[in-house]
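User: Please predict the structure of the protein below. I'd like the answer in structure-token form so I can feed it into my own downstream comparison script.

Assistant: Understood. Taking the following sequence of 110 residues as input:
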Amino acid sequence: AQSADRAKVVYGALGLLMSKWARQGVQSAIAFEAQMANVRAITQANASDMTLMTDTVNQLSVQYGKSAVDLAGGLAEIAGAGFSASDSVIILTEATKGAVAGATDAQVVA
């Protein structure tokens, strides 16, 4: 009986953690989409350019362990300065490398 009660507590705690992680994942996805919509509004990018920028942000996030939301914000800052989509992803890539080396974020470096 005691081990059954313990199992209920453990499974209950796991359920709460999984729910929290799922909620955080959804919130991050919504924030990312909002940032990329901002990039689209700033750049007036076509579908091909948006794919390039989105893929680059996601790749940099995985490669350098930086938040995709933060990287998309950095991309918005760069694009807002008038750079093309292709130039923006090059600048973002270099800014991310600099941010990792200097332990800051791409928005600050950009």
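That's the full token string. The longest helix spans residues 2-43.
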